Amino acid sequence: MSSTNPGPPRPQRPGRLVSLLLDLSTREAEVRHVEAVGEHFRLVTLAGEGLRGAAWTPGDMVQIILSGATLFGPWELRSYTPLAYEPDTGTTQILGYIHGHGPGSDWIAAANVGTRCRLVGPRYALSLRKAERPAVFFGDETSFSTAVALRETPSGYRGVRFVFEVDSVEDARAVVERFGMGDAVELVAREEGDRHLDELERAVLDTYRSTEATRGILTGKAPSIQRLYKALRAVGVPGRRLTNVAYWAPGKKGL
C-alpha cells in the first residue's frame, strides 16, 4: 500500500482583512533549494520579493509561521537564525534540525522547492557583529545556524572556539565539515541522565582558559547554559563578558 507525503502544514486561507494585516506584518517567501546536511539537518534557501530590503545583522532571527491565519491565532511559529540574509536579492538561508515529530521538524522534513511560507522578522536576538575575540561559543543542534552566522561578521570564525553538546557526533560532524569550522570545534555527546555535563563543563572551562577568551557566548538548552554560566562565574569570568541566549528548555515549546 503506497502513501503520499502530505507536505508541510498549510495555513488556512485568511479573509481579506487578515490578508492585509498579514501583508503588513509578515514577509512571504518560498523554498528555492533544500540540501541535506548529514541525516538530520536541512539547509533551506528561502527567497521572495517580500524579503528584499530587510535590515539584518548576524545573530538576528526570523520566525516561520507554520499554521494559523486568523487575526488572533492560534499561531504556530518556530524561530530560526539565518546563516545569511541578502536583502538585495531577497534571499536567506536557515539550517533546520529534524528531531522527533513536531511542527518545526515536520515542516523542515517536508519542505521542498516551491513550498511557500510567511516569515516574521528579521528581528534582534543576539548581536554577533561586535563580539570580542578570542571567544568561546557554546551551543547544541539548535545553535549551529547562529554559529555559522559568525561567518558574516568582519572577523568570521577567526578567534572563536566552539563547544557543542549533541545527540549524534556523526551528524554534528557533517555540519562542522559542511560549514568549514574545522579543528575549532569540540563535540560532547549527550548521555542518559545528563551524565555528560561534567565533561561538557570541563570542555568549556578548559577552552576558555586555553584561548584566554574575552567573551563567552552561551546558547541552546537553558539548563546547560545555567550550569555553564555558574561554572564560568565561579572561576572569575565577569558576567558582563558572558552572553546567554536560551533557545529551548525541556517541556517548553520554545523560548
**What is the CATH topology descriptor of the largest domain?**
Rossmann fold
Helix-strand category = alpha/beta
Rg, alpha carbons: 19 Å
Describe the sheet with the most strands: 7 strands, antiparallel
Mean pLDDT: 88
What does it look like?
With 255 residues, the chain is an alpha/beta fold. It folds into two domains: 16-123, Beta Barrel (Elongation Factor Tu (Ef-tu), domain 3); 135-248, 3-Layer(aba) Sandwich (Rossmann fold). Helices cover 24% and strands 31% of the residues. It has helices at residues 16-25, 103-110, 144-149, 169-178, 197-211, 222-234; strands at residues 27-37, 41-47, 61-67, 76-80, 84-86, 91-97, 116-123, 135-139, 160-166, 185-189, 215-221, 242-248. The protein has a seven-stranded antiparallel beta sheet with strand order 4-3-7-1-2-6-5. Strands 10-9-8-11-12 form a five-stranded parallel beta sheet, with helices on both faces. Residues 1-6 and 9-21 have low confidence and may be disordered.
Note the topology.
Elements: H1 16-25, E1 27-37, E2 41-47, E3 61-67, E4 76-80, E5 84-86, E6 91-97, H2 103-110, E7 116-123, E8 135-139, H3 144-149, E9 160-166, H4 169-178, E10 185-189, H5 197-211, E11 215-221, H6 222-234, E12 242-248
Parallel strand pairs: 8-9, 8-11, 9-10, 11-12
Antiparallel strand pairs: 1-2, 1-7, 2-6, 3-4, 3-7, 5-6
Q: What is this structure, in a nutshell?
A:
The protein is an alpha/beta fold and 255 residues long. It is built from 6 helices and 12 strands. The strands form 2 sheets. The protein has a 7-stranded antiparallel beta sheet with strand order 4-3-7-1-2-6-5. Strands 10-9-8-11-12 form a 5-stranded parallel beta sheet, sandwiched between helices.
